[in-house]
Design goal:
- This protein is an alpha/beta fold.
- It is about 45% helix and about 20% strand.
- The chain contains ten helices and eight strands.
- An eight-stranded mixed sheet has the order 3-2-1-4-7-6-8-5, sandwiched between helices.
- Strand 2, helix 2 and strand 3 form a beta-alpha-beta unit.
- Helix 9 runs antiparallel to helix 10.
- The chain starts with a strand and ends with a helix.
């Protein structure tokens, strides 16, 4: 049983090299890794060159493929290319715990075919610490892509992967569908993820907009409506 790690990127030259080294240096056994697939959505920085350089330093297969821009599209492109039995989807600024590979494989062997880790931000801000604390609870409302997501390739194909109509909220949509079929587990170890977006925009402002997006989704907003709001309030 082997894992394919899939990382969507767009201009991540500053972080992707560190993440790739972290992944390989924190496995229980590199033999558990089928490959690491970096899916580039059109970077104009040196991201691809960094990936190619790092790949020369390790025996684990690290490759970069190109895709249309959009996290759901990029994640699906990686999933289709992957050869591993288990797909592990990871953000470029999220760092899994020591021996994450063993943790994921053990859960799948127990029959838990999808799930995530808990999460902490690399910040001591009281609100961000509170958000990390919430990830211990087994509720789909406490989930997000920053926690990383694993799923067997077979189950991923059965649920038709990520819904590419979602430019934002694609992680939560997949989690909702997995919870609906009782196929989701939370591993009690922590991914450390960057709070860079909160630092750039402001903790309270960004959290307000994220909560607004969640509320709009619960009230039936379309994927287009959610993206329009995100584009207007968060990106700009």
């Amino acid at each position: 049983m082997k894992i394919s790690i899939i990382i969507p990127i767009l201009n991540e030259a500053a972080t992707i090299g560190q993440l790739l080294s972290h992944l390989i240096n924190n496995t229980k056994d590199n033999a558990n890794l089928q490959e690491i697939i970096v899916v580039d959505g059109g970077s104009i920085d040196t991201s691809i060159a960094v990936v190619e350089q790092v790949s020369k330093n390790y025996d684990v297969e690290i490759k970069c493929i190109s895709s249309k821009k959009g996290r759901a599209v990029q994640l699906n492109a990686g999933g289709k290319t992957a050869k591993g039995d288990i797909l592990y989807f990871l953000h470029a600024d999220s760092f899994p715990p020591l021996y994450f590979d063993q943790d994921v494989i053990e859960e799948v062997k127990k029959g838990n075919n999808a799930g995530c880790f808990r999460m902490k931000f690399d910040s001591n801000h009281i609100w961000l610490r509170f958000l990390g604390w919430l990830t211990q609870f087994e509720s789909k409302r406490c989930r997000g892509g920053d926690q990383s997501q694993f799923i067997t390739k077979q189950l991923f194909e059965e649920v038709n992967g990520y819904d590419e109509s979602y430019i934002v909220y694609e992680d939560n949509d997949l989690v909702d569908r997995l919870f609906a079929i009782n196929q989701f587990v939370i591993i009690p170890k922590y991914v450390i993820t960057s709070a860079r977006r909160y630092r750039e925009i402001g903790v309270w402002r960004l959290q307000y907009h994220f909560l607004n997006i969640h509320m709009r989704r619960w009230m039936g907003a379309s994927s287009e409506d959610l993206y329009r709001y995100y584009k207007e309030k968060v990106v700009n």
